[in-house]
Amino acid sequence: MNEKLLEEIGLTRGEVVVYQTLLKLGETTTGKIVDVAGISSGKIYEILEKLIRKGLASYIVKEKTKYFRAASPQRILDYVWEKEKDLKAKEEELKKELPSLLNLQQLAHKKHETMLFKGLKGFRTAVFESLDLLNQDDEVLAMGVLSTKGEEYNLLWEQWHRERVKRKITCKILFSNANTEYYQRLRKLRFIQIRVLQGITPAAVDVIGKRVLILTHGEEPSCLIIDNEQIAQSFRSFFESLWKIAK
């Protein structure tokens, strides 16, 4: 029997051992189970009780002695089905609670205007969560973008832009350099305008809705998020002034 599989569907190691022992012995007493399974006598009743609650064991009383036996292995499928049914019910309950949980998260975000994400995973979380805040009427403004950063960043941003295109969100990018393969790939995307202006900022800056992202690439990437409409508007104005003189 695949013991690992039984553990994966929710049985403890002790339950698996005792259930298999009951299958081998048939109707038997706790003393015999303890001897064969190698389970301590202090735990055997607790394990048997759990198996009974899961419908995988039962007992009868003969002359004041309990005799335990395993349920048919077919019962394991019923147990899995019941767990799936229970999980489905909990999923429906969670869906009802989700709006209130999201509201709590939004309240928390309002309290913290500035957030710092570090590492590639944190960087990815920051940029994709920011994209989720946008709708089709919004526009992304990006300046100080380097086309010569590491390929892992290029692939991440290309994936981000593909998701942006699916949502039909427009984007304007001011590259600090050009004429690279990454630069050419981005130019072929839809809903995008690209211009080049050398040496804008030492870090990339994105304006995404009411949010400003200050991005650094390298061995330890980071993303500083500022959620502030006035600051975002200041960067928009700065971007537009640069856009006019870029080529």
Textual characterization of the structure:
The protein is of the alpha+beta class and 247 residues long. The protein is built from nine helices and nine strands. Strands 3-9-8-7-4-5-6 form a seven-stranded mixed beta sheet, sandwiched between helices.
What key phrases describe this protein's structure?
247 residues, Arc Repressor Mutant, subunit A, Endonuclease, Chain A, 7-stranded mixed β-sheet, elongated
What's the CATH class of the largest domain, please?
A: Alpha Beta
Number of helices: 9
What percent of residues are in strands?
15-25%
- Radius of gyration over all CA atoms, rounded: 30 Å
Q: Briefly note the structural class of the backbone.
A: alpha+beta
**Order of strands in the sheet with the most strands?**
3-9-8-7-4-5-6
Q: What is the number of domains?
A: 2
Summary?
The chain is elongated and about 95 Å long.
Give me the secondary-structure topology.
Elements: H1 3-8, H2 13-25, H3 30-37, H4 41-53, E1 57-62, E2 65-70, H5 74-111, E3 114-118, H6 119-132, E4 139-145, H7 151-166, E5 170-175, H8 181-187, E6 192-196, E7 204-208, E8 211-216, E9 222-227, H9 229-245
Parallel strand pairs: 4-5, 5-6
Antiparallel strand pairs: 1-2, 3-9, 4-7, 7-8, 8-9
Helix pairs in contact: 2-4
